[in-house]
Amino acid sequence: MFTDIDKFYLKMALEEAELALQENTYPVGAILVDDQFKVIAKGRNGVHTNNDATAHAEIEAIRNAGETIFDAKIHNRSFTLYSSLEPCPMCTGGILFAKIQRVVWLLNDDLGFGGYQKMKDAAIFEKKFDRIEMIAEPDEELKNRQLELMHQWEKSSNHVSHLRKEVSLVLPSGGEIQ
Ligand SMILES: [Zn+2]
User: Fold this and answer.
1) Tens digit of pLDDT for each residue in 115-136?
2) Which CATH class is domain 4-158?
3) Which residues contact residue 155 at a Cβ distance below 8 angstroms, ignoring those fewer than 6 apart?
4) Helix (H, G, I), strand (E, B), or coil: what is residue 105?
5) Ion ligand 1: residues, Cβ under 5 Å
6) Interval 5-40: pLDDT, tens
7) 58 assigned to active site
8) Dist. CA 55 → ligand 1 center (Å)
9) Where do the domains of the chain lie?
């Protein structure tokens, strides 16, 4: 079930995504909320900010939650992870390890590294996925705001297409790095 409270936290995740874009990295933000709807941790993409290919918003949020995650696992508390984009395979793994029980995201990522839906559909770790409530693209307006951030990101100097162009300029052969 999708509620106004969920929408409130998706907006918060979107704010993190906007901050990430300002920092010239992938515009993805994530908010981890407990069963009393209290914010436990926030995260935003830090791939280019920290030069860390694994610094994804969802992983950052889980990491920032620290021991609270283990406390929730022990007491079987239902945490919700809100993300502005569908989690990739790595973040989906993080969600399973952290035993997060609800996942809500704004925009599917079929053409990119969206992994949650694919892993769930593949019926691997089926019992683990069965325990998680998944809500994808519940709000059209907020989804479009994330889509707009993704379009803005394509213009960023750190976007891979621009980085490759820079490399091909300095290669004597003018060849492209595969
Ligand atoms: Zn990820």
Assistant:
1) 999 999 999 999 999 999 999 9
2) alpha beta
3) none
4) strand
5) 56, 88, 90-91
6) 999 999 999 999 999 999 999 999 999 999 999 999
7) yes
8) 8
9) 4-158
In this prediction, residue 164 carries a pLDDT of: 87
pTM higher than 0.85: yes
Tell me how long the chain is: 178
Query: Residue 62 Cα, ligand 1 centroid: separation in angstroms?
Result: 11
Which has the closest alpha carbon to 94: 65, 127, 129, 58? 58
Report CA(175)–ligand 1 centroid distance (Å): 30
C-alpha of residue 141 to centroid of ligand 1, in Å: 23
User: Six-digit token pair at 17?
Assistant: 């995504």
Catalytic residue among 16, 18, 23, 58: 58
Q: Which two tokens stand for residue 19?
A: 């901050």
* The two three-digit tokens of residue 142, written as one number: 């907020």
How far does the centroid of ligand 1 lie from the alpha carbon of residue 165, in Å?
25
In angstroms, rounded to a whole number, what is the distance separating the alpha carbons of residues 54 and 1?
31
